[in-house]
What does this fold into?
Amino acid sequence: MNISLSPLFDFFLPRICPGCNKKLSSNEEPVCKECLDSILIADENLIQREYDRKFRSTRFISGFYSKYIFEADKTLQNVIHALKYNKQFRIGTFLGEILAEGIISKKWSIDIILPVPIHHLKKAERGYNQSDFIVKGMSKILDIPYSTKLLKRTKYSESQTKLHINERAENVANAFKVKNPNRVTGKNILIVDDVCTTGATLKACGKVLSDACANSVYACSVATTDF
Ligand SMILES: [Zn+2]
It folds into this structure.
Protein backbone atom coordinates (compact mmCIF):
# COMPACT_ATOMS: atom_id res chain seq x y z
CA MET A 1 0.00 0.00 0.00
CA ASN A 2 1.25 3.44 -0.85
CA ILE A 3 2.03 5.16 2.44
CA SER A 4 0.41 8.44 1.35
CA LEU A 5 -2.95 6.64 1.11
CA SER A 6 -2.94 5.29 4.63
CA PRO A 7 -4.68 8.22 6.40
CA LEU A 8 -7.58 7.69 3.99
CA PHE A 9 -7.71 3.98 4.80
CA ASP A 10 -7.50 4.78 8.50
CA PHE A 11 -10.59 6.90 8.04
CA PHE A 12 -12.68 4.12 6.53
CA LEU A 13 -11.39 1.15 8.50
CA PRO A 14 -12.91 0.50 11.93
CA ARG A 15 -10.54 1.51 14.68
CA ILE A 16 -9.44 -1.41 16.81
CA CYS A 17 -7.54 -1.27 20.10
CA PRO A 18 -4.24 -3.12 19.48
CA GLY A 19 -4.24 -4.37 23.07
CA CYS A 20 -7.61 -6.15 23.22
CA ASN A 21 -8.97 -5.96 19.64
CA LYS A 22 -12.04 -4.11 20.91
CA LYS A 23 -13.66 -1.68 18.46
CA LEU A 24 -12.89 1.91 19.43
CA SER A 25 -15.38 4.75 19.15
CA SER A 26 -14.31 7.66 16.95
CA ASN A 27 -13.49 9.93 19.90
CA GLU A 28 -11.48 7.29 21.79
CA GLU A 29 -7.66 7.32 21.96
CA PRO A 30 -5.93 4.69 19.77
CA VAL A 31 -5.43 2.45 22.83
CA CYS A 32 -8.47 1.85 25.09
CA LYS A 33 -8.37 3.01 28.70
CA GLU A 34 -8.44 -0.52 30.16
CA CYS A 35 -5.42 -1.56 28.10
CA LEU A 36 -3.52 1.64 28.84
CA ASP A 37 -4.15 1.22 32.58
CA SER A 38 -2.85 -2.36 32.45
CA ILE A 39 0.65 -1.31 31.31
CA LEU A 40 3.25 -1.23 34.08
CA ILE A 41 4.62 2.24 34.78
CA ALA A 42 8.36 2.60 35.44
CA ASP A 43 8.81 4.28 38.84
CA GLU A 44 11.64 6.64 39.81
CA ASN A 45 13.71 3.90 41.49
CA LEU A 46 13.55 1.61 38.49
CA ILE A 47 14.48 4.44 36.11
CA GLN A 48 17.45 5.38 38.29
CA ARG A 49 18.57 1.75 38.48
CA GLU A 50 18.28 1.36 34.71
CA TYR A 51 20.24 4.59 34.17
CA ASP A 52 23.00 3.38 36.49
CA ARG A 53 23.13 0.00 34.81
CA LYS A 54 22.87 1.08 31.18
CA PHE A 55 24.32 4.58 30.93
CA ARG A 56 26.26 5.81 33.96
CA SER A 57 29.58 4.23 32.99
CA THR A 58 29.76 6.35 29.82
CA ARG A 59 29.78 10.12 29.61
CA PHE A 60 27.39 10.20 26.69
CA ILE A 61 23.97 10.18 28.35
CA SER A 62 23.24 12.82 31.03
CA GLY A 63 19.81 11.54 32.02
CA PHE A 64 17.28 8.86 31.21
CA TYR A 65 13.51 8.52 31.41
CA SER A 66 11.11 5.78 30.43
CA LYS A 67 7.35 5.85 30.89
CA TYR A 68 6.60 2.13 30.93
CA ILE A 69 8.17 -1.25 31.70
CA PHE A 70 8.29 -3.58 28.73
CA GLU A 71 6.81 -7.01 29.31
CA ALA A 72 6.87 -9.66 26.59
CA ASP A 73 3.49 -10.95 25.39
CA LYS A 74 1.59 -8.20 27.18
CA THR A 75 -0.46 -5.21 26.03
CA LEU A 76 2.41 -2.85 25.33
CA GLN A 77 4.13 -5.32 23.02
CA ASN A 78 0.94 -5.51 20.92
CA VAL A 79 0.60 -1.72 20.95
CA ILE A 80 4.19 -1.15 19.79
CA HIS A 81 3.85 -3.93 17.22
CA ALA A 82 0.80 -2.19 15.72
CA LEU A 83 2.78 1.05 15.44
CA LYS A 84 5.89 -0.63 14.07
CA TYR A 85 4.42 -3.02 11.54
CA ASN A 86 0.76 -2.11 10.91
CA LYS A 87 1.12 1.60 10.04
CA GLN A 88 -0.91 2.74 13.05
CA PHE A 89 0.84 6.09 13.20
CA ARG A 90 -1.62 7.69 15.63
CA ILE A 91 -0.37 5.20 18.25
CA GLY A 92 3.09 6.74 17.84
CA THR A 93 1.98 10.32 18.39
CA PHE A 94 -0.27 9.20 21.27
CA LEU A 95 2.63 7.40 23.02
CA GLY A 96 4.80 10.45 22.32
CA GLU A 97 2.29 12.71 24.05
CA ILE A 98 2.25 10.42 27.11
CA LEU A 99 6.05 10.22 27.16
CA ALA A 100 6.30 14.02 26.93
CA GLU A 101 4.14 14.48 30.05
CA GLY A 102 6.75 12.48 31.99
CA ILE A 103 9.64 14.42 30.47
CA ILE A 104 8.14 17.73 31.69
CA SER A 105 8.70 16.68 35.31
CA LYS A 106 12.42 16.05 34.62
CA LYS A 107 12.96 19.79 34.06
CA TRP A 108 15.64 19.08 31.44
CA SER A 109 16.56 21.97 29.19
CA ILE A 110 16.17 20.56 25.66
CA ASP A 111 16.80 22.34 22.35
CA ILE A 112 15.90 19.57 19.92
CA ILE A 113 14.34 16.10 19.95
CA LEU A 114 15.73 13.32 17.74
CA PRO A 115 14.30 9.86 17.09
CA VAL A 116 16.69 6.90 16.95
CA PRO A 117 16.97 6.55 13.16
CA ILE A 118 16.56 3.35 11.19
CA HIS A 119 18.70 2.49 8.16
CA HIS A 120 17.35 3.84 4.85
CA LEU A 121 16.97 0.30 3.49
CA LYS A 122 14.88 -0.71 6.47
CA LYS A 123 12.85 2.46 6.04
CA ALA A 124 12.27 1.60 2.38
CA GLU A 125 11.20 -1.88 3.39
CA ARG A 126 8.87 -0.84 6.24
CA GLY A 127 7.88 2.53 4.80
CA TYR A 128 8.56 4.60 7.90
CA ASN A 129 10.42 4.91 11.18
CA GLN A 130 7.99 4.34 14.06
CA SER A 131 9.99 6.65 16.35
CA ASP A 132 9.40 9.60 13.99
CA PHE A 133 5.76 9.57 15.09
CA ILE A 134 6.69 9.33 18.78
CA VAL A 135 8.88 12.47 18.56
CA LYS A 136 6.14 14.24 16.62
CA GLY A 137 3.74 13.73 19.55
CA MET A 138 6.42 14.79 22.05
CA SER A 139 7.29 17.91 20.09
CA LYS A 140 3.67 19.06 20.15
CA ILE A 141 3.34 18.72 23.94
CA LEU A 142 6.81 20.03 24.84
CA ASP A 143 6.81 22.76 22.18
CA ILE A 144 10.37 21.80 21.26
CA PRO A 145 11.41 21.21 17.62
CA TYR A 146 12.39 17.78 16.34
CA SER A 147 14.44 16.55 13.41
CA THR A 148 14.20 13.19 11.69
CA LYS A 149 17.17 13.99 9.45
CA LEU A 150 19.95 15.15 11.75
CA LEU A 151 20.99 11.68 12.86
CA LYS A 152 21.55 8.93 10.33
CA ARG A 153 21.94 5.18 10.68
CA THR A 154 24.76 4.15 8.38
CA LYS A 155 24.92 0.47 9.29
CA TYR A 156 22.15 -1.94 8.42
CA SER A 157 21.84 -4.30 11.35
CA GLU A 158 19.69 -7.36 11.59
CA SER A 159 17.22 -7.63 14.45
CA GLN A 160 18.97 -7.37 17.79
CA THR A 161 16.60 -9.63 19.65
CA LYS A 162 18.60 -12.83 19.30
CA LEU A 163 21.96 -11.28 20.14
CA HIS A 164 23.77 -11.39 23.46
CA ILE A 165 24.23 -8.09 25.32
CA ASN A 166 27.88 -7.73 24.19
CA GLU A 167 27.01 -8.61 20.61
CA ARG A 168 24.26 -5.96 20.66
CA ALA A 169 26.70 -3.28 21.75
CA GLU A 170 29.12 -4.31 19.00
CA ASN A 171 26.30 -4.47 16.48
CA VAL A 172 25.24 -0.84 16.96
CA ALA A 173 28.60 0.73 17.80
CA ASN A 174 29.54 3.07 14.95
CA ALA A 175 26.12 2.53 13.36
CA PHE A 176 25.19 6.23 13.53
CA LYS A 177 26.38 9.47 12.01
CA VAL A 178 25.51 13.11 12.60
CA LYS A 179 24.51 14.57 9.24
CA ASN A 180 24.98 18.21 10.11
CA PRO A 181 27.32 18.57 13.13
CA ASN A 182 26.89 22.38 13.15
CA ARG A 183 23.29 21.94 14.25
CA VAL A 184 24.40 19.77 17.18
CA THR A 185 27.30 21.79 18.57
CA GLY A 186 26.45 23.30 21.96
CA LYS A 187 22.89 21.95 21.89
CA ASN A 188 20.96 19.99 24.52
CA ILE A 189 19.50 16.99 22.77
CA LEU A 190 16.82 14.47 23.69
CA ILE A 191 17.10 11.17 21.86
CA VAL A 192 14.03 8.92 21.70
CA ASP A 193 13.59 5.18 21.21
CA ASP A 194 10.45 3.03 21.37
CA VAL A 195 11.91 0.32 23.60
CA CYS A 196 15.20 0.53 25.49
CA THR A 197 16.63 -2.95 26.01
CA THR A 198 20.38 -2.92 26.75
CA GLY A 199 20.71 0.82 26.11
CA ALA A 200 23.39 0.12 23.48
CA THR A 201 21.47 1.92 20.72
CA LEU A 202 20.81 5.08 22.74
CA LYS A 203 24.41 5.03 23.95
CA ALA A 204 25.75 4.76 20.40
CA CYS A 205 23.59 7.74 19.39
CA GLY A 206 24.82 9.64 22.46
CA LYS A 207 28.41 8.98 21.47
CA VAL A 208 28.18 10.48 17.96
CA LEU A 209 26.25 13.47 19.32
CA SER A 210 28.92 14.01 21.99
CA ASP A 211 31.60 13.68 19.33
CA ALA A 212 29.79 16.43 17.43
CA CYS A 213 30.12 18.61 20.57
CA ALA A 214 26.53 18.47 21.82
CA ASN A 215 26.32 20.19 25.20
CA SER A 216 24.30 17.36 26.76
CA VAL A 217 22.37 14.35 25.52
CA TYR A 218 19.35 12.94 27.34
CA ALA A 219 17.75 9.64 26.42
CA CYS A 220 14.20 8.39 26.78
CA SER A 221 12.04 5.51 25.66
CA VAL A 222 8.37 4.64 25.74
CA ALA A 223 9.30 1.44 27.54
CA THR A 224 12.36 -0.05 29.17
CA THR A 225 13.14 -3.66 29.93
CA ASP A 226 14.15 -4.29 33.53
CA PHE A 227 16.18 -7.43 33.00
ZN1 LIG B 1 -7.88 -2.37 24.65
